[in-house]
Amino acid sequence: MHKDSQSRQEIGQTLMLMARDFQQRLDSDMHQRGVEGIGSRHRAIFLFLGRNGPSRAVDLAEAAGIRPQSMMKIVHELESLELVERSEDPNDSRAKLIQFTAQGRQLIVELSHSTETVWQQYADILGDRELENTFKHLNTLLHAGEKNGE
After folding, report:
1. Cα-flanking dihedrals φ and ψ of residue 105, to 5°?
2. Structural domain of 106
3. Which helix H or strand E contains 90, and what residues bound it?
4. pTM score of the predicted model
5. Higher pLDDT residue, 36 or 140?
6. Would residue 1 count as lying in a domain?
7. CB atoms < 10 A from the CB of 142, how many?
8. 81 in a domain, yes or no?
9. What pLDDT does residue 37 have?
10. Residue 123: which CATH number?
11. What is the Cα–Cα distance from 95 to 92, expressed in whole angstroms?
């Protein structure tokens, strides 16, 4: 098999393994700093809320690719940790919006610090300019997929 062809076949594995590597590095840094992080099942909620703001559970479930009932279990867990809270949806009195609490927003700050640490670890491997270019290219691919409705 030609080397370029092999690379093309391994793109999915490489991207998934990189995501896992990033999470492991992030979790390790959070743990070393004494900050209890969120579990893997909570990450999609934090990512979606961080990008989109207060959201309905059904939208969080769709974004995470899980059933709404499973999402509510996760929301309850995060509520018990006082990281999220539910409030009335001003557009639909029957619905609730999930949003970060002050403690949840503080966890986001801590995650940001750990993200900086992981960024530096990767920059130490690739160099600052190469990492910036890699990130820019990955973002281009991500946003092209979003524009195409993928």
Report:
1. -65, -35
2. 11-147
3. none
4. 0.75
5. 140
6. no
7. 11
8. yes
9. 62
10. 1.10.10.10
11. 5
User: How far is it, in rounded angstroms, from Cα 72 to Cα 61?
Assistant: 8
Distance CA 46, CA 107 (A): 10
Helix (H) / strand (E) containing 98: strand 92-100
Q: What's the mean pLDDT when you consider all of the chain? A: 88
Q: How far is the C-alpha of 54 from the C-alpha of 132, rounded, in Å?
A: 30
- DSSP per-residue letters across 100-143: E-HHHHHHHHHHHHHHHHHHHHHHHHH-HHHHHHHHHHHHHHHH
Q: Is 44 inside any structural domain?
A: yes
Number of domains in the chain: 1
pLDDT for the residue numbered 35: 82
* Tens-place pLDDT, residues 37-47: 677 778 778 88
Assigned domain for 41 exists? yes
